[in-house]
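A favour, since you know our structure tokens better than I do. Go ahead and set the record down below.
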Amino acid sequence: MGETVAQRIRGKMAVAGLCALLLAAAGCGGDPGPTVPRTPPAGAVITLDGAVYGRPIVVGDTVIAATENDSVYAVTGDTVRWRTHLSEPMPGSALPCGNIDPVGITGSPAYDPAAHRVYVIAESSGAHKTLYGLDSETGAVTLRVPVDPPFGDPPAYLQRPALTFRDGRVYAAFGGNYGDCGTYTGAVAAVDISTSAVAWYRASTSGRGGIWAPGPPAEINGLLFYSVGNGNAEPGSAYDDTDSVIALTPDLRRTDYFAPATWAQDNEADKDLGTMNPAAVNGYLVMAGKSGDGHILDPAHLGGISSRTPAFTGCRAFGAAAVDHDVAYLPCANGTTAIRVTATGAATVLWHAGVPANGPPLIAANRIWATDWHRNTLYALDPATGNVLAQYGTEELPHFATPALVNDSLVLGTMTGIEYIALP
């Protein structure tokens, strides 16, 4: 505790005209709007012992970051308050496929403020998954619960979505590795922290159907809403519960679901809904997936298999949206898109960013912050127009890098640790 970490301080110039160059290189159209030419505040780069894929969480003025080396850190400013190494991670070379190496802690942690406990799921050698609870003040391990899904092959599973803590349970969702190989079935675990009992929801009757979108589930009226990816059932097969949005009770009973009438074709073409976390907006759910079709769903009646016309198109979304009242800012692959949802469930596309800000966004300092994790860039967008207000070069970013807010700064997980960027 109290260890001071050497940090590199560097100025990052927001270069006027760089947006246009990025657009030309990416083959994207659209006017990025004016870029404000200014020198942003210096950023602190904190080197940890591995890549930080899960979005860091913030407890008071402390950042909790978990690495693919199965370590959890508490960092206040540029000082590591504690580090706990939980196990040895799973070598990527021992997995049937995937693009993370090694595989340790991939999903974003959760926090229980009453117990002052941080929760993570670590994958260890042998492809075993374990839920750990750590004291947020000291890093001491206070809970260990095995959470290997009870169906499929352990190496075929990846715990990617953010954990959720609610009413004495930790919820964790599972999908497959990049490449969708091996035998697995998408799943949700609910761990009772008082008894260590684990309940399971199985997402597919045919196999696959991964639950992997990196954000948390939506929560409305006591229900958890997850998206489910493509399953093994294709044209000519019975529906297998995949390519869907599902509503689960706290004890993981499915009460409702939505799937497009094209579910079989979507499964066959890998155009499922499983890439985005459902977003709660103005009493409705906003959902978009790999096909680019967007849906506005009534959480009280998702509608089952539906042939309804999409509410909007052109947004292949990956990750969690940011929401401000009746507007959702969606992480579309071709750039952040703002959608307004009325009290009657009508949807209007307000704007589409002219730059490839495709990471899950954050609202802070009257700006929309989103990364282009392909090009290690963080954008600040005007929430009213989508125009670029500033942009920052970053350290190398993992897939779907998402900023978090701590005091007057943003913090990003990187391939080597975390990076702070001061708010304007």
